[in-house]
Structures are given as structure tokens and as C-alpha cells.
Design goal:
149 residues; alpha/beta; six-stranded parallel beta sheet; 5 helices; two-stranded antiparallel sheet; globular
Length: 149
Amino acid sequence: MPFIVGVGDLPEDEMSLGSIALSSLLGGDVKKLSCEQSPNDVISSLYKEDGIFQLCGDAAYLNTQEGSWLEALGAWKVPTILMVLARADGNVPGMSSAYVALCKKLSVPLIGIIQLGGEWNSKSRYLDGLPWCGIIPIQKLPNRENILS
């Protein structure tokens, strides 16, 4: 039951497209969850379910009562995939490195990072030393609809 987590507060439209593309590759349905929900309650109720779980919102946000979703994913040892929205030129936000470091600190079983959109710059991806899984090309259309390329 991998969890798909956006780096920062990733726009839900782009994240949904990435999750759907990933589910077509891995199989299983995409189930959306919100960072507003209690991480421990949700994970304990889903622990035996199949599918891919898309977490909407900022998983690093600290909930004063339970900690963050990332803390819960680490505590429950839930396999996690990060998704990051790239700029058109292929550069990715520095938050990607911060999220990977936070996942390591919190013992989150990180499968890797998937780049959403932009150009794939293999040299930059190699040099940043992050665990990249690849790219899901997403293109914004003038009418603001999103499609998979």
C-alpha cells in the first residue's frame, strides 16, 4: 500500500494525474486522503487494504496533537513515493532535498521521487543525489486542463 506524497502543498490536479498514471503502471485504485485527517487513525484502518493512497496537502505540516503525516508514515513503516512538480525547464524546487532529508530523519521507507512535468534533465537529477524514480510528463493546456503526454 504505497502512499503518494507531494513535496510541499502540491496542486491536487497535477498530483491526481501523477497518481493515476502510477496506478495504471502498478495496478490498484487510487484512494485520496487528506492531511486534515488523523494520520494514525487513517493508517491503522487502511493497513491491510490494497491500492495506492494519494495524500492531499502538506505531509510535513506538524499537527500539534499527533505530529505530522510523515512522522506517522515512518512510525507505521509505510512505503512512500514523493512527487514533485518541476518547472518547465526541468528544474525542481529545493524542497525536494528537504523532504528526502526529513523522510530519512523520520525513518519513512522512501521508494523514491517522481518528477511531474517539465523536461527531464538526467545530469541534474544525477548530481542532486536524490532517489529519483523517473518522470511522469504532464502538460498544461491553454484552457488550464491537464493531460498526460
